[in-house]
Backbone:
């Protein structure tokens, strides 16, 4: 797919605000001519691609700045168009003046994501790779960065492409049958087709399943800390955050009754959510707090239930566990304040539900906190994360895969019930259509606008 853009666009590629240098990027057929018209130095039109040139930006006779010009000659650039990058001094005044000057000389201010959109339209990236660019910019943990990088490098796209090609082969054989429909021929071996579609359905099913973890990696894994008042929830939160205070230390938008902090364990971000203590509902306002806590618990990826080993009877502990621990959500029982352990308390023995772990810690003395961290990681991630396995992190991809799966299930049903070729062909095509939506083989302007408008300006 190649489309020619007539405009030459310009935007600041580096972050807004004062920095040592700012990089202004131009892309489009006139990028080199426009840059050259404001540049005093070598004639940029005569320079080779991927070269850098020192000189001055001139506004008439006035020197605006001393700069470096980086040259990318089409099609060897990020957008596959002519690209010039001006590295200037990072003052807001200088940056604004240079951009204005370039607009005066024929460039147009770029819209959000327009550089990457051009890279997509010109075939440099497919759609899922373009989306990965945005994910990469937003990545703030090792796992999120790796998932985005894998997608940017085309891991996911290649996998989908391979599936598509196999299906296309069958689709064309079945189409051929339609041409000979009078003669009752079968070019596409139904057993082979069934096997292939079955295999593809399995692969797609796995990709669909990977979304839960992929999404958690991208957004952070929700980890609710709950327990009775005074159990030591806040102290535990602080102990967990102690050395590893994450890049994002306080997530805005959280309500007063719950606190959210980000904790990085083994490259994955966990959103620790400290809740209002359960069972303190003596008045309506507190009741609302408890309700919120129950709601948070129902949505968490993993639950840390904290209790005070010296204050809770086995009966109460059993009751709490029965109420809070649900089979669908991994739970870790955190027996806290073991530094004060009274000899009798140690004898509390309760029956833990299947899949529940118990770990004894002292939040105050920071004992066994690392053990707890590794347990949190294991219960949510380990066993599911391998280096080269594709993770779906994007809800748009998830939806397209689910629709593909549905269409292919129809194909399987059709083969089973010996449906006619035309119906089979229709369902296969439907599946191909949805697969194509992911990589952008099939797109609409709305879809593209929707995706790229979420990018920042200059990307
Ligand atoms: N200064 C700068 N840094 C950047 C970018 C950029 O555009 N400018 N990028 C993006 O925003 C990323 C790098 N992406 C890029 C991808 C391709 C090409 C490019 O010139 N490709 C040519 C030549 C490849 C080669 O020489 O091997 C090509 O694909 O033909 C440049 C940057 C991150 N860093
Ligand atoms: N000895 C000891 N005291 C602890 C430990 N953890 C917490 N505490 C103490 O227990 C008291 C309650 O701790 P918090 O962390 O405020 O408990 P909480 O569960 O957040 O309480 P609420 O906010 O009321 O729900 C504080 O005085 C803590 O210092 C521990 O491991 N050992």
Residues:
């Amino acid at each position: 797919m190649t489309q020619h853009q007539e405009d030459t666009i310009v935007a600041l590629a580096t972050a807004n605000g004062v920095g040592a240098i700012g990089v202004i990027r131009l892309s489009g057929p006139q990028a080199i001519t426009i840059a050259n018209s404001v540049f005093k130095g070598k004639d940029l039109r005569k320079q080779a691609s991927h070269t850098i040139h020192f000189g001055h930006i001139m506004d008439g006779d006035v020197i605006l700045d001393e700069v470096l010009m980086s040259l990318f000659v089409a099609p060897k650039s990020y957008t596959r168009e002519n690209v010039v990058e001006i590295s200037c001094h990072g003052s807001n005044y200088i940056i604004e003046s240079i951009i204005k000057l370039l607009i005066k000389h024929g460039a147009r201010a770029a819209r959000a994501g327009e550089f990457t959109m051009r890279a997509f339209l010109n075939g440099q990236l497919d759609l899922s790779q373009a989306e990965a660019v945005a994910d990469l910019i937003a990545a703030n943990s090792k796992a999120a960065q790796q998932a985005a990088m894998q997608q940017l490098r085309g891991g996911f796209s290649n996998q989908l492409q391979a599936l598509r090609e196999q299906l296309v082969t069958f689709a064309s054989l079945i189409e051929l049958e339609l041409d000979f429909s009078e003669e009752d021929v079968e070019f596409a071996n139904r057993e082979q087709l069934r096997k292939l579609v079955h295999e593809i359905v399995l692969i797609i099913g796995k990709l669909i399943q990977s979304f839960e973890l992929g999404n958690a990696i991208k957004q952070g894994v929700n980890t609710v800390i709950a327990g009775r008042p005074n159990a030591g929830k806040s102290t535990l939160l602080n102990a967990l955050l102690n050395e590893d205070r994450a890049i994002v230390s306080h997530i805005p938008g959280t309500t007063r009754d719950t606190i959210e902090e980000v904790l990085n364990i083994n490259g994955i971000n966990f959103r620790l959510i400290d809740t209002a203590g359960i069972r303190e509902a003596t008045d309506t306002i507190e009741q609302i707090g408890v309700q919120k806590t129950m709601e948070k618990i129902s949505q968490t990826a993993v639950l840390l239930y904290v209790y005070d080993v010296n204050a809770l009877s086995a009966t109460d502990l059993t009751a709490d566990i029965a109420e809070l621990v649900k089979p669908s959500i991994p739970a870790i029982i955190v027996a806290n304040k073991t530094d004060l352990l009274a000899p009798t308390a140690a004898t509390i023995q309760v029956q833990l539900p299947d899949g529940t772990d118990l770990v004894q810690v002292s939040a105050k003395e920071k004992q066994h906190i690392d053990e707890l961290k590794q347990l949190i990681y294991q219960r949510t991630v380990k066993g599911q994360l391998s280096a080269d396995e594709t993770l779906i992190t994007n809800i748009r991809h998830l939806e397209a895969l689910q629709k593909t799966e549905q269409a292919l299930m129809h194909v399987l049903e059709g083969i089973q019930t010996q449906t006619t070729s035309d119906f089979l062909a229709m369902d296969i095509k439907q599946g191909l259509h949805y697969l194509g939506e992911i990589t952008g083989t099939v797109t609409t302007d709305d879809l593209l606008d929707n995706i790229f408008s979420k990018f920042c300006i200059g990307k």
Summary: Residues 244-256 have pLDDT under 50 and may be disordered. The chain has three domains: 9-125, 134-214+394-440, 220-381. Residues 227, 229-235, 277, 336-337, 339-340, 362-364 surround guanosine-5'-triphosphate (ligand 2) (CB under 6 Å).
